[in-house]
Design goal:
By secondary structure, the protein is mainly alpha-helical. It contains 6 helices and 2 strands. It has a domain of about 110 residues. The chain has a two-stranded antiparallel sheet. Helix 3 crosses helix 4. It is globular and about 50 Å long.
Length: about 220
Amino acid sequence: MLDPLSLPFLLTRGQSPDSAKPPTNSAIKPDRFIIYTGPQSVLRLSHDVTSRSLIVSICESESSRASIINKSTSAIRSFFSISKVSPSRLIYITAGLAFDAASPKPFGGPKTHPGYVEYDGTTVASLLQYLIESSFKRYWTYRGREALDFVVSCVNQARELQFAGNADILNELMLKGMKKAGHIPWNALVTIPEALRHREEERSEMATNEVRFTPRLTVQKPV
């Protein structure tokens, strides 16, 4: 006796085997499932003072999602506070880097409707909240860290550009972030307010990769 489970398809009476096959050009494709064998890591954003960078770290203890968002927000504000400019300026610069159709989801997408258009806040605080919360929601839903790593990369790049000191590039990115966030009109002439203007960093505070050599002193022996 044949086991029905061994047959690829069950045939009804009077039906030929060929008619039971699924159409080869079917527009319906089966869903692909990814099975994770381990629990999801509890992640948060942290200000690593040693490396002078923002990083994605694993929480040592179980934390609520609200706590993760709050601590990650504080980490970015702490990271941006070590600068001569307002953290608000650096948040707008971060948005200018992140809000692009070519960016990974949830920020990127079709040029006619990229993901960042879902943001509808009116304050800098809400903009930072959106950047963090939307990337974490993406991670919690799909597990992939791409959105989190992307936001961290944009935050680090914003601060690196600030210390590099090119005011024109920084102003362009800041205005781009403000426009794409809907905080200023696209085509209006805008004067950057005093609180958001560029400030030069002191040379001694800049994180550089320069290798400096200390000249060797020659000690002359008395004759």
